Amino acid sequence: MASTRQELIAPNGRKISLNTGLFIGNEWVRAAEGGLIESINPANETVITSVQAATEADVYIAVRTAKAALKHPSWADLHPSSRGSLLRRLSDLVEEHSVDLATLEAWDSGKPYSVALNEDVAEVITCLRYFAGWADKAHGQVIDGGASKFAYTIREPFGCGNTVILKPSELTPLAILYLADLIKVAGFPPGVVNILNGHGREAGAAIAKHPDIAKIAFTGSTSTGREIMKMAASNLKAITLETGGKSPLLVFKDADMEQAVKWAHTGIMSNQGQICSGTSRILVEKDVYESFIEAFKSFTQATSKVGDPFAETTFQGPQISKSQYDRIRAYIDSGIKQGARLVLGESSSRDHGGKGFFIEPTIFCDVSPDMDIYREEIFGPVVVISPFETEEDAIEKANDSPYGLAASVFSQNITRCHRLAKKIESGTVWINSSNDSDSLTPFGGMKQSGIGRELGQAGMEAYSVIKSVHVNLEAKL
Questions:
Q1: DSSP of 453-467
Q2: Fewer Cβ neighbours under 10 Å: the N or C end of the chain?
Q3: Are 196 and 166 contacting, i.e. CB atoms less than 8 angstroms apart?
Q4: 17: which strand partners?
Q5: What is the 8-class DSSP label of residue 448?
């Protein structure tokens, strides 16, 4: 069988050897039906390469491989501390290869290279090391049942010893394929980690419906999350869903306005606005409404430099795809037609000979709650700013959404901040910051923003089940 490895030269001149096959059982294989997915550079719309596209047949092979690995002594009998050592070894390899990983991510997704390197890859390293420390600390509980009996609980798989199948987004398949080679080098036994690129309607659906998969963890749109719930219901799979959001950011007149402006900008304009928890609804106390708008506009104009992801001065690269570009443009047009005041933006920015999915940062104000741009997730560098009168008004407007992923509150009255944190309906509340997260703290949504939590101890525990063991010492019938 011909090799699926390709030699690539990135826009920054980096030469990268990348395997584009399916990673099953620590081996690279071609898709059963021979399908391919083109990886498109969103900065100039050229094809980077093509990767193998899994279908249902490949999913079934991967599941059989993962099931066998789950029971194989090389993994099943491995001490939890040794599993932690594997994760630490993988984190070291990610750090060693961070430039290649960041290059692929910037090339494939359009995000600035500096962000991919200093934030995304750095967070991967931190996350791996954090959970490596949990591998031998997933303790159970001993329960006193009286003199004649006791019970205890254990978490299975012990030491987070699952086997997994990863299906990346078909829009960004490259960096995860590079990671697969590092997983093998780190020493993970065959079948513990399997990676299948593929379309959601084929590979994703097959994973969601497969009877031998015990849990699904999904990050993506609310509509896709609903479909996954329906398919997972066929065998009562455990699910974790991190879906859409329309997160509010509240600014009171006593806030540190300079910091509120900077955090508000980071909260929506980072990652080209493609942030599930992006604070895309800014609610400002009426007394400082107009002054905040002017300060936010000025800071955005000075900071959000749109352009080549590999240029050092770039803050914002292109959107992820043509379909997402078109979707964002449609929302901008909708906002204008429905009467919102356009403060900044409107025109698209197509560099590189008219190519690339670039959109200027866009700010709307005087937006009513019935407008599409106010209520619906846009997933782009588009923000709406609206005034509020009182604290109660701010809470009501913040909660007036089908989503509940995150929220931010800016005020120097810390008592007020804590009061609002309790009343706002969201899985995360940031006080005087925005999109400020880490591996130690659980993350997830309420309402239509998802089910369950990732990260932190709660995230780790979601990948195990509690078994209760009752021990009869002397009771007789």
A1: -BSHHHHHHTTSEEE
A2: C
A3: yes
A4: 7
A5: T
Task: Tell me how long the chain is.
Answer: 477
The dihedral region occupied by 235, where left means phi > 0, alpha psi between -120 and 50, and beta the remainder, is: alpha
| Topology (CATH) of 248-438 | Aldehyde Dehydrogenase; Chain A, domain 2 (3.40.309)
DSSP character string of 357-388? --B--EEEES--TTSHHHHS---SSEEEEEEE
Compute the 3-state secondary structure of the chain and give helix, strand, coil in percent, each to the nearest 5. Answer: 40, 25, 40
CB 397 within 8 A of CB 360: no
242 catalytically annotated: yes
User: pTM, whole model, 2 decimals?
Assistant: 0.96
CA distance 418 to 446: 19
**Structure tokens belonging to residue 22:** 């399916």
Distance of alpha carbon 204 from alpha carbon 454, whole angstroms? 20
Q: How far is the C-alpha of 365 from the C-alpha of 383, rounded, in Å?
A: 8
Q: Please give the CATH topology (third level) of the domain spanning 5-244+454-464.
A: Aldehyde Dehydrogenase; Chain A, domain 1 (3.40.605)
Q: What is the C-alpha to C-alpha distance for residues 122 and 243, in angstroms, rounded to an integer?
A: 24
223: tokens are 């509509």
Asked if 391 contacts 420 with a C-beta cutoff of 8 angstroms, the reply is yes
Q: Catalytic residue among 105, 202, 242, 377, which? A: 242
Structure confidence by residue, pLDDT tens digits, 20-72: 999 999 999 999 999 999 999 999 999 999 999 999 999 999 999 999 999 99
Task: Classify the phi-psi angles of 292: left when phi > 0, otherwise alpha if psi is within -120 to 50, otherwise beta.
Answer: alpha
Give the DSSP letter string of 320-338: S-HHHHHHHHHHHHHHHHT
Q: Are 320 and 42 in contact (CB under 8 A)?
A: yes
List b or e across 198-223, with b for residues whose CB sees 16 or more CB atoms inside 10 angstroms: bebebbbbbbbbbeebebbbbebebe
Tokens of 175: 């960096």
Residues of the chain with CATH 3.40.309.10: 248-438
Residue 14 three-state SS: coil
d(CA 205, CA 220): 14
* DSSP-assigned letters across all residues of 69-122: HHHSHHHHTS-HHHHHHHHHHHHHHHHHTHHHHHHHHHHHH---HHHIIIIIIH
In angstroms, rounded to a whole number, what is the distance separating the alpha carbons of residues 252 and 283?
9
Q: How large is the angle between the packed helices 174-186 and 98-109, nearest 10 degrees? A: 160
Half-sphere exposure of 41 (CA within 13 A, CB side): 20
Q: Is 424 helix (H, G, I), strand (E, B) or coil?
A: coil
Return d(Cα 454, Cα 126) in angstroms, integer: 15
Tokens of 418: 């804590």
**Could you tell me the two tokens for 326?**
């078109």
Cross-strand pairs, 22: 29
